[in-house]
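Why should sequence recovery work at all? Because a backbone constrains its sequence more than one might expect. Tight turns favour small or flexible residues, buried strands favour hydrophobic ones, and helices have their own preferences. The token representation captures these environments compactly. In the example below, the structure is given first.
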């Protein structure tokens, strides 16, 4: 009986020590940005490795383009809408640049409807139905808004 009591007490002490040793504490981030503090205490800047939120000034046509993109994205399936909204939130500058490239192509002789047809051809190889819908929706929205904001003179061509 005494041995059983000692064994129970020993197990209880070991269990308490195990719980105490696994106690992890959180430390608030003491600097802004993305960084690493190595074992020597040196701060290593990792901002170029982290994916920063794109900070561009969205005014004028660019701001209207982004707002209209978000509005039009909501007319697709919920999954496609989520993909489109995440995309425009994470890289609005890329979407604006793509729309401006579409206008440049249109000014060089490729009609905006041809740009849409090319997207349909590219989408044929996408097997995932949500990814395919998102790709086609992005092309449709981008062409429509490109003609509204960046090359309105080509809208009816």
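From this structural description, the recovered sequence reads:
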């Amino acid at each position: 009986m005494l041995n059983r009591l000692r064994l129970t007490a020993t197990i209880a002490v070991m269990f308490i020590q195990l719980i105490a040793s696994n106690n992890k504490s959180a430390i608030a981030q003491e600097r802004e940005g993305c960084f690493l503090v190595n074992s020597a205490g040196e701060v290593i800047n990792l901002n170029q490795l982290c994916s920063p939120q794109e900070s561009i000034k969205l005014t004028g046509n660019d701001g209207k383009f982004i707002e209209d993109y978000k509005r039009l994205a909501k007319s697709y399936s919920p999954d496609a809408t989520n993909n489109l909204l995440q995309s425009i939130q994470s890289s609005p500058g890329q979407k604006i640049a793509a729309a401006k490239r579409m206008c440049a192509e249109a000014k060089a002789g490729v009609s905006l409807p041809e740009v849409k047809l090319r997207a349909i051809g590219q989408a044929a190889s996408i097997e995932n139905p949500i990814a395919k819908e998102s790709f086609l929706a992005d092309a449709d929205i981008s062409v429509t808004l490109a003609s509204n904001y960046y090359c309105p003179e080509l809208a009816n061509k």
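A few observations help interpret the result. The radius of gyration is 27 Å.
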